[in-house]
Amino acid sequence: MMFFLSHGYRVIAHDRRGHGRSAQTDSGNDVDTYASDVGLLVETLDLQNAVHVGHSAGGGEVARYVARARPGRVAKAVLISAVTPLMLRTQHNPAGLPMEVFDGFRTALVANRAQFYRGIPAGPFLGFNRANAKISEGVIQNWWRQAMMGGIKGQYDCIKALSETDFTEDLKAIGVPTLILHGDDDQIVPIADSSLLPAKLVRDATLKVYPGLPHGMCTTHPDTINPSLLAFIKG
After folding, report:
1. Among the options 37, 52, 56, 81, which is catalytic?
2. Nearest-angstrom CA–CA distance, 72 and 14
3. Is 167 exposed, middle or buried (0-12, 13-18, 19+ CB in 10 A)?
4. pLDDT tens, 97-112?
5. Closest-CA residue to 27 (of 159, 147, 158, 150)
6. Domains in the chain, number
7. Annotated catalytic residue 27
8. Is position 56 annotated as part of the catalytic site?
9. Band of pLDDT at residue 193, cut at 50, 70 and 90
10. Which of 40, 64, 127, 213 could form a disulfide with 217, with the two C-beta atoms 3.0–4.6 Å apart?
C-alpha cells in the first residue's frame, strides 16, 4: 500500500466480513456476499475506474465482483496467486485438490486455531519451509495476528467458499484488462490448476509467472511484485 501511495495513487484495502476489523458475521460468508460487500463499498465511496487487486481467496472475490460490476466502476483487475477457477477436485476438475485437504483445514482450525494459524505462515504460505528461505519471525507473527483478529465461524465458512466456488463463468465474463501473477513454487494454490487456466479464460489476460516464488510472494518479494503491478496499472 505504501508503495502505491508513494506513486500518487489512492489505495483502499477492505477487510472481508469475518476477517480483520470487519464484523464477525455468522452468515454471508460466501463469495456472492463477499462480492456484494465489495460492490456496496464501491458504491458508497463512488469509485470510478478502479483497479481491483485480489490475492489468493481475494482473487476469487475480485473475479466475482469484476465480472458483475457496473460499467465504469472497474478499469483493470489483478489476480495474484488466486484460487480461480476452482480449487476442489471434481469430475470436471480432476487436477484439483481432494476434499480431504479442505476437511483437514477445517478440523485443524477448530481443534487449535492459534497453532493452525502459526503453522501456515511459518511453513508453506511464505515458503519458509524451503531450505534457502530467509525467514522473518516478525512476518510470521504479524500473519498470525491478522488471522486471529478474525472470527472462527467466518474463517471456517471461508474454507468452503475458497475451495468449492467455481469461478469459470466469472473469468469468461471479465471484460477489462487483467494481470495474472503466480509463483511457480506456490504450495497453497498450485499454479498448474489455477493461474494457467484463467490466463486462457479471461479474454484480455496477461500471465506473469515468477520462478521459485511462494504463495505469499507479495510479502516475501515486494520489490519484485510491486513494479509488475505498477507497470500494468500505468500501461
Report:
1. 56
2. 20
3. buried
4. 999 999 999 999 999 9
5. 158
6. 1
7. no
8. yes
9. confident
10. 213
